[in-house]
Each structure stands twice: as structure tokens, then as C-alpha cells.
Amino acid sequence: MKRGMLFVFALLFVLSIGIVSASECLETSIAKSVYLNKETFQAEITGEFYKDLSYKNFVFYNQDLEKYYYPIFKVIKLSANKYFTYVDLNIPDGSYLFITKDVLCKYNNLVTTVSESNPFLLKNSTNESLLMALNPGVIKTNSGTTATLTLKNKNGKEITAEISSESTPQLKTFVSPNENKAVKIYFPVMYTVNGLKFENLNIKYYLTEDADKINQTNETNVTVTVRQYEVPMIIYTLISEEPQEQQEILIVNDTFEYEEENKSASNESVDINDTLITNKLEFVESSITDSLSGEKIVKINLKNPSNKDITEIRLSYSSKLYGIIDYVKPDYIEKLKPNEMKEIEILFRFDDFFYGTYNGSIIALGYIELKEISTSIPVNIFIKKFGGNENEVSDKTCRERGGEVCGKNETCSVDVVPVNDEECCFGQCGESTTPKKETKINWWLVGVFIGLIVVSIGFIWFSFRKPKKKMEDFVKKVEDRYRQKIGEKRASLRRPIDEEKDLGNR
User: Fold this and answer.
1) Do 139 and 161 touch, CB atoms closer than 8 A?
2) Residue 503: enclosing H or E segment and its boundaries?
3) Distance from CA of residue 400 to its chain's centroid?
């Protein structure tokens, strides 16, 4: 009996360990418990993932209406174990569950499918005078650069936004009614041990007309509405251990000797590769241009054409492509050796709600001996409308989408994309660099050709010309015509007499 009880307790203990491990496999958290409709929803997802997450792993469930909603979540991968996602809310108000579903997780050397939900309340924002959304909901950037944050004023009054973080300068900006304002945030050069720094960008916003009341909150009759966002930031920094200059060492007879500082000119040698090869990073393909009627994977190649290692390469894409790119992988390459090439895979998602033309770029940024280098490849994607005309696009013109129509004597640096009956260039227009070929005339062939034409005309003329008529035939023909006319004249003179005879007989 005791052995049986011990076995049961042992089994329960093992199961409890398994349950705890399974719960640790996936953990989600959301930024707020109460949202206003049209605000930006934010969530963080961590776990031991067996497969990359995508927008298909997230869904909203309205508990009041018992209905699921599937917006296009924007997913940012920080590492193999952490993701961020965000989306502008535009669904009916009510009590919701944010569900992370069908996630393949690893625990105890096993792969299992798990899901998790987080409740939140969505309020109607029709009567709200303070309402703002933002993009992106997560900032992923490099130190020493700038990032663009778009603040979207969703109401009819001006909003004041105060932006601050631990590392970035404090900013105050004003967003006009119904304006989408792009704010540049500068990130100074930073050093960390592991090359990464995590911060939150705090955005406090309120109506500009209430600015004077902010300092009067000690009065009981003063009420001011202030809302805020916290935007997670992943900043890639330089490594804190800066390499120190070292003297070159020559190995002579298994002993170390320092090389003389002042070498004679005859002993100096220069590696010609150092002078001819530029330190750079490049994509093999010139552009990505395609039309989508479904999800599609596009593969491109990133190459190191220099003679030095390129390290800590990070791949990302411009904000104009948010919503149509599911992932870029790998998004981090530890090192590319000289002349080494790495294949990059991009999954373009398809949703005919976003039909039209999208343009932007895939960006690669790395380092050569702590010197930052970067490159990009233009992306021009046309999403077809499901069940409609394949060439149907949105009402925006080529210029409104950031492109231009090249002139008659100009060519586009990338493949053109059709936008509202225009050949739209999302690269650069310039004069055609195609050299004009000089045409050399082969007079011998020209002479042969002309001779053939003359011979052909002569043959046709001799074949169809009429033979000469003899004089006797001509005289005979004239006599016959004369006799015929005399006979006709005599016949006409006899007709009246014959008619009179006929009348007399009557």
C-alpha cells in the first residue's frame, strides 16, 4: 500500500514538473489592460521556440460577441527567445482576449504545441478628444544613427507629445489634428559588453490646450488627461572592449623580435589587395520586384567583396514594408569572411485588403574593424486584389507612393512598377548609359542587293511586255473598223423608208 502511494506521489510530482516546464515554454505580456479603439496594441512574447512566430500566431477574441478577429500583426524578432508584436486597434469595443496560439515550443527535449491568452478591455473612442496611435510599436536600431517614429493624431485637437529615454535626448513635439507626424530620434554612439542595449522610449501626450493646467494639478478643480506609451527599444551598440594598437611581431628562429619602427623604403611592402578592394557590403541582386497573389518566399544573396571580415551584420527593412513582410532570415550574421556569400530568405505575406504597390528596401548593416558599413536593395512589390482586376491598384499616384516617372531619354536604375497606368520608378531616373553602336556599311553587300533588284525588275518587264504588232495587221484592223462604220450608217438611212411603207400598207 505504501509503495502504491509513493508511486502515485512520484507520478504527480513528475507531472507537476512537466506542467511547470510547459508554462515556462511560453509567456506573453501586454502593455495595457485597458485600450481605446484606434490606439496601438503592444505585446511581448518570450519562450523556448522551436519555430519562428508570425502574424498567424496571434488573434483577438471578443468575449461579448464570441467572435475572433484576425488583424495583420507586425512581428519583430529580437532573438530566438523573444518577440514583440503590435497593431493598430480597429475592432468593436468589448472584453477581449489576446491569444497567442499554435506555438511550437521546446521543453524537456520535447516539442509541443501551446497557446496562451491575456485579457484586456477595449473602450469605444468615439467621444474621446485625446487619442493617438504610433508606428512602429517597437524600435530596433543601431547606436550612432537615427530612427523615425510616426505619431498619429486620431482626433480633431492638437496634441503635445513629450518623448524621453535613458539614452536619447528629450523631445517635445506638436501633432496637428488628424496628422501623421514623423519624429526623428537620435541615438548616440554607445558601447556595451555584449553589443546590445534594451530601453523603453516613454511617450507622454496630452492636449496642447491643457498644457497650462499640467502644473496646476494641486488645485482640486483642475483635471487633465495624460496618456502614455512605452515603446521597447533594441539598440545594437559597439563592443565596449576597444582593440588597442599592437606592434607587429616577426618570428625569427622561434624567438619573438619587435619589428623596427623606421624601415627603409627598400624593405617596405604593400598588399595590393588593401589598395584595390574597397571595404563594403553588397547584395548580389540589383532589386526585388514582384507581383503577389499569395504568400511567396524570395531569396537574395549578401556578399562580402572586401578582403576583411565583416562582423555583426544585422538585416532589417524599411517601415514602408511593414505589414507585407513576415520575416527576413537570418536577420543576424555573426561574420562574413572575404568573398563569402550568404543566402537571405524573405517571406512576403499576402492580404488582398492591402492591395496596391509597396516600395522600400532591405537593409544590411555590419562592421569592419569597428567601422560601420551598410548597403540596401530596393523592394517593389505589387499585391493583386483578390477577385478583382489584376492590374487594380490604390488611388495613390506614383509620386505619392515615393516614386517618379522617368523622362523619355531617361532610364530607371531598377525595374519599373505599374502604378495607375504609369511606369513608376522607385530607384533613380538618369540618362541612358547604353552606348550607341556605330553602324558600318558593307558596300559589297549593298551592291549585290541592288544588282538583284535590277535583275528582278528586268525579268518582270521582259516577261509581261506585249509583242510588237506587224503593219499588215494594223492596216487590216483599220479597214475592218471602217467597213463596220459604213455598214451601220447605211442601215440607219434605210430605216425611215421602211417605216413609211409599213404605214401605207395599214
Assistant:
1) no
2) helix 471-505
3) 16
pLDDT score, position 159: 92
Q: Which domain holds residue 140?
A: 129-242
Longest pairwise C-alpha distance within the chain: 164
Residue appearing with cell numbers 508606428: 135
138 vs 31, 36, 40, 291, CA distance in Å?
Answer: 12, 19, 11, 28
Backbone angles phi, psi at 472, to 5 degrees: -65, -40
CB 300 within 8 A of CB 281: no
112 pLDDT exceeds 50? Answer: yes
Sheet holding 74-79, edge to edge: 26-30, 40-47, 82-88, 74-79
Neighbours of 192 (CB within 10 A): 15
pTM value is 0.47
Residue 392, amino acid: E
Average pLDDT of the residues in 260-285: 49
Which residues are paired to 41 by β-bridges?
87
Grid coordinates of 55:
502574424
| Radius of gyration of the chain, Cα coordinates, nearest whole angstrom | 42
**Is residue 419 situated within a structural domain?**
no
CB 372 within 8 A of CB 365: yes
429, pLDDT greater than 80: no
The 3-state DSSP class for residue 502 equals helix
Alpha carbon distance 395, 372 (integer Å): 40
Instruction: Output helix, strand, coil percentages for the chain, rounded to the nearest 5.
Output: 20, 45, 35
> Does 259 fall in a domain?
no
**Can you list the positions of beta strands (E) in 310-460?**
310-317, 325-329, 332-336, 341-348, 356-368, 371-383, 404-405, 410-412, 417-419, 422-425, 429-431
CATH number of the domain encompassing residue 102:
2.60.40.1930
In order, the DSSP letters of 285-324 are SS-EEEEESS-EEEEEEEE--SSS-EEEEEEEE-GGGTTT
Q: How far apart are CA 311 and CA 125, in angstroms?
A: 48
- pLDDT of residue 505 exceeding 70, the answer is no
List the grid coordinates of 104: 511550437
> Which residue type is seen at 172?
K
Characterize 409-434 residue by residue with b for buried, 16 or more Cβ atoms within 10 angstroms of its Cβ, and e for exposed: eebbebbbbebbeeebbbbebeeeee
Q: Looking at the structure, do residues 109 and 137 belong to the same domain, yes or no?
A: no
Query: Cα(358)–Cα(250) distance, rounded to whole angstroms?
Result: 57
Query: Grid coordinates in use for 432?
Result: 541612358
Whether residue 119 is found in the same domain as residue 189: no
